[in-house]
From TrEMBL:
<dbReference type="InterPro" id="IPR042946">
    <property type="entry name" value="CMBL"/>
</dbReference>
<dbReference type="InterPro" id="IPR029058">
    <property type="entry name" value="AB_hydrolase_fold"/>
</dbReference>
<comment type="similarity">
    <text>Belongs to the dienelactone hydrolase family.</text>
</comment>
<protein>
    <recommendedName>
        <fullName>Carboxymethylenebutenolidase homolog</fullName>
    </recommendedName>
</protein>
<dbReference type="Pfam" id="PF01738">
    <property type="entry name" value="DLH"/>
</dbReference>
<dbReference type="GO" id="GO:0005829">
    <property type="term" value="C:cytosol"/>
</dbReference>
<dbReference type="InterPro" id="IPR002925">
    <property type="entry name" value="Dienelactn_hydro"/>
</dbReference>
<dbReference type="GO" id="GO:0016787">
    <property type="term" value="F:hydrolase activity"/>
</dbReference>
<feature type="domain" description="Dienelactone hydrolase">
    <location>
        <begin position="29"/>
        <end position="241"/>
    </location>
</feature>
């Protein structure tokens, strides 16, 4: 029996009333929240395995919008079922084969086109969590339209093509994440030093488990709260610096 790799309990979430609304963009559904003033800056949020409707991810979208960005979380699973806390971990590898975080280019292009043509966005950043962190790492190697990225605890897959980032990218990890070893993080750092020509940053937050940074305030444990808030501030500061 494999331990649940997402150490926060997704069953006991507080209810969250969203500030944004849902839209249809070509073949994709998406959740959008806009700031109270007009802006030409936007952020794409890439959800984790629990999908685009999960309350934690919508909270992050609203948070980014509150900092002045047109923020959008598209359904990168294209209408297929997200992973749920009642699914069996034995089935997870098979589910991942059907939901490959490196096969997101077409969806990213659809969303970028929408942000530019329908929302007037000129600078667009991206942040992603877990599954979405892997998607962000992939897109920062492939898509020059993205001005900056933040990858939060995306599992690091080593290959020589994984380090030549096109735009500034910030990697956030939890020290106690048992899906990502510190060795993998050190390897990422070494390889980025060798290959990366743009600003990057790697930061490990003490005592934090996988999934820590998207918890809503009422779901945080007091010991973790300062690190969760710090990670979120760091994520927003990185986006503000480059987008």
């Amino acid at each position: 029996q494999m331990a649940d790799p997402f150490l926060y309990d997704t069953g006991e979430r507080s209810h969250y009333g969203c500030l944004g609304h849902e839209v249809q963009i070509e073949y994709l559904k998406a959740y959008v929240c806009r700031p109270s003033f007009s802006t030409d800056k936007a952020v794409i949020v890439v959800h984790d395995v629990f999908g685009w409707q999960f309350p934690d991810i919508r909270y992050i979208v609203d948070l980014m919008a509150g900092h002045g960005y047109i923020t959008i979380c598209p359904d990168f699973f294209k209408g297929t079922d997200p992973w749920t806390s009642t699914d069996h971990w034995a089935d997870f590898p098979g589910w991942m084969k059907e939901h490959d975080p490196t096969k997101v280019d077409k969806e990213a292009d659809v969303v970028l086109k929408y942000l530019k043509e329908q929302c007037g966005a000129k600078k667009i950043g991206i942040v992603g969590f877990s599954w979405g962190g892997m998607a962000v790492h992939h897109l920062m190697l492939k898509n020059p339209q993205l001005t900056a990225g933040v990858s939060l605890y995306g599992i690091v897959r080593d290959s020589e093509e994984r380090y030549n980032l096109l735009s500034p990218t910030f990697f956030i990890f939890g020290e106690k994440d048992h899906t990502i070893s510190l060795d993998q993080i050190f390897l990422l750092e070494d390889k980025l030093k060798q290959y990366c020509k743009v600003p990057y940053k790697i930061k490990v937050y003490p005592g934090q488990v996988h999934g820590f940074a998207q918890l809503k305030p009422e779901d945080m444990k007091p010991d973790d709260k300062p690190y969760i808030e710090e990670a979120r501030r760091d994520m927003i500061d990185w986006i503000k610096m480059f987008v």
